[in-house]
Amino acid sequence: MTDETKALVLFSGGQDSSTCLAWAIDQFTNVETVGFDYGQRHSVELDCREQVLAAIKNTFPPWKRKLGSDHLHAIPVLGNISETALTRDTEIAFAEGGLPNTFVPGRNLVFLTLAAAIAYRRGIRHIVLGVGEVDYSGYPDCRSDAITAMENALNIGMDSDFVLHTPLMHLDKTAIWELADQIGGTQLTDIIVEYSHSCYLGDRNTRHDWGYGCGGCPACALRAAGHEGFIEKIVKAHRPIE
């Protein structure tokens, strides 16, 4: 039996998954989270996810009452079989075929399989993840058709009726900042700036207006450009920047 009021969010501690967490809290009554330690180069995100969760609970007491168990699982095999710039100390570049070498083959597919297994055990039908096909690095497992196919495979393979939610699928990074603002206002966007992590190099020493990061990797570039567009829209709307 599944509970329609419950959702499981794939929560890495980044901007996108933090926004998806807020979206899920807004949509569902009971929200659990799951993260994975796969030997990622930017493993600092695992600490950041705890900080984001703590900040959300402290800042939004009604949200705290909706948040349930947080699951964190080590799956080192994914990193062991990957030769990528996210799992090795390798310069970020474009590989043969046009994909950046930050692409970890099968990552989202593995994450979804494990998340669905957890959801199956806990009677959760709705699974939320922060993939999108607008401002992204060309990863094939972030596309809508890949998620639809995965939803079908999970439902067939587990004889279930999972629903995979991708609220960011058709949003650029500016729109993602706006969505967070719509859900939780400045309090939420401040949490995302201060505690969430996107930088592929794991830099938590350099503070920018949009958060911490090296400022030069593709993840930082997308996050910075999106935040700049978000601030420009606030200024045009004559809204004070707190």
Task: Describe, in plain words, how this protein is organized in 3D.
This protein has a five-stranded parallel beta sheet, with helices on both faces. 45% of the residues lie in helices and 15% in strands. The longest helix has 23 residues, at 173-195. The chain is α/β, with parallel strands linked by helices and 242 residues long. The protein has a domain at 3-171: HUPs (Rossmann fold), CATH 3.40.50. It is globular.
Provide a brief overview of the structure.
With 242 residues, the chain is an alpha/beta fold. It is built from eight helices and seven strands, in the order βαβααβααβαβαββα.
Any key phrases for this structure?
single chain, 242 residues, alpha/beta, Rossmann fold, 5-stranded parallel β-sheet, two-stranded antiparallel ribbon, 8 helices, 15% strand
Radius of gyration, CA atoms, in whole angstroms: 17 Å
CATH top-level class of the domain at 3-171: Alpha Beta
Please count the beta strands (DSSP E, at least 2 residues each).
Answer: 7
Largest sheet: 5 strands, parallel
List the helices and strands and how they pair.
Layout: E1 3-10, H1 15-27, E2 30-37, H2 44-59, H3 61-64, E3 67-74, H4 76-80, H5 107-122, E4 124-128, H6 144-157, E5 163-165, H7 173-195, E6 207-208, E7 211-212, H8 218-236
Parallel strand pairs: 1-2, 1-4, 2-3, 4-5
Antiparallel strand pairs: 6-7
Helix pairs in contact: 1-7, 2-7, 7-8
